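User: Predict the structure for this protein chain, please.
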Amino acid sequence: MGYSGARGGLEAILAAEDLVRRKRDHAPTPWVSTEQITARFRLAVDRVMGEAGLYHEPTAAAAFRQAEGDTLEASHLLRAQRSTLPRLAVSEPVDPDEMTVLRRIVPAYRQPDGPQLLGRTADYTGRLLERPEGPPEPLAEDAATGDATDRAERTEEQRSPRRFLDLLRKKELAVEGRTGDDPEPHDITRKPARPPADRSAVLAAMARAESGALVALWYRSVLGPDGDVHEITLGELRHGRLPLRVRHPHTGNPVTLGEFRVTEAEAIEDLDGADEDRTRFDVGYGLCFGHNERKAIAMANLDIANRRFGRSGPLEQLLLLTVDGLDSGGFLEHLKLPHYVTFRSMVERKQAMRAAAEAGEDPSARAAEPAGKDCR
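Assistant: Here is the predicted structure, written as structure tokens:
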């Protein structure tokens, strides 16, 4: 509230904040614990963690509860909380092939190398609203942890299948994107990325992007309003756990602190450009926190689109500067703050133009003049 005129409304502001707290914390329904939110609204919690860039389910659940279900506001709260935390260590690079797969589908191939693991999904269920009359029947003790039973039914080899991209490489159908001199990943939390940017910066920006904005931008690229044609196939989609490792401060050896869940996608696109290898496919990559398949798929496809057309059009700039929900949503939210000073100057400018027109003068000359009054 950087307006002097807003000081007179301080009492109303405090009353509004108090009303929010009373309605949230003293509602007629029972208090919802963070454990309940994590269990019942797991996809919302995963989305908040991804857009905030902080992987901690209880804190994300508390932010979701405080925001009363507004995922963007919850992401804002969580990212603000993250900014207060010390950076104790930098984790070691992790190989996605180490993932313990909980869900894996390969839409591009009927019989991929390894099993199709449908996992926990409603993708193949009719969109019919269920109205249970009471609480569901309790699960058996061994199934209460979600995927514990399913994990026991799968072998280690099935939980770590070879990826579909390896098959394309074996058939020499994929453009090889790996190089031996990859630059250090761009840390967008410490240094903002601006075009032209490294691929790591674009991927990091998309991993932290607002999911809806990223999907909308992806769909726009598919429709091809800029004249760029995309023939997209989803190669592989995974959801699973990866180890978190850091270097021990005394021994220097890597130490595994725990696991975190991610969603990974690989998209395939036909190459048909004049300067492209038309005998191969390009493969895009997406990886984000938690279980958020829409974001990972959009990331993978936009990764290809940006490398093919981003430098010749606005796509890279859009990915780096407009899909962050906290940036775009914050600018939108600020429109609700007092703007009567600037609007009063606009009104005075219009009145001056009208007076000039009535006096037979050139209205555009008056429009260029400053308002000259302070309406505070």
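Strands lie at 100-105, 232-247, 254-270, 281-289.
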